[in-house]
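Hey, sorry to bother you again with one of my protein questions. A protein chain has come my way and I'm curious about its shape. It would help a lot if you went through both lines with me. I owe you a coffee for this, so here goes:
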Amino acid sequence: MEKNEVITEWVRLYADPMYDWARFKVSDESVARDLVQDTFLAATIGYDSYSASSSVKTWLFQILNNKIVDYYRSRKRVGRTTESMDEEQAEQVTRSFFDDAGNWAEATSADWADEPRLMDNPVFIQVFYQCIDDLPDTWKLAVTSRYQQEKSAGAICKEMNITSSNYWQIIHRSKLLLKKCLEVNWL
């Protein structure tokens, strides 16, 4: 097959799952479409460099994931365009969980024990993903990279160009915000 036919076949096979992934990662339909389009443009340009050492799907999704990371990096530089919290607001909320001595200011909810299989509950999953979407962009990227893509802390630090201590602080604060969001919107 010729290059154009191959690329057309890739679009037919992978555009929908790539769009679904991008939409999940960026929570914006038009941005997700643009990222997928940019991915196929990059694949077309880099077609001759594709070595087939991995599957086409793996190669395309790696390009897409790199485009998603670039998207978040550019948003961090030029400012936010969504309604979720910025990092300063998120840090203020997480500081409110502790007293002046650094101890928990509020007791944790016992209601969590009543729900042993939350990830099997579609309503909970919807609330959970909304809470993730409400995180500051860099926090959302760190959490989804760690817990959904199962990347190592070192790889995430390198990808996001942050220190290890900054990464762990982001993960900790993200968990606190997610917990609070779920307690407010789920319990």
Summary: The chain has a mean pLDDT of 78. The helical segments are 3-26, 29-45, 56-78, 87-95, 122-133, 137-147, 153-160, 164-185. The CA atoms of residues 39 and 62 lie 9 Å apart.
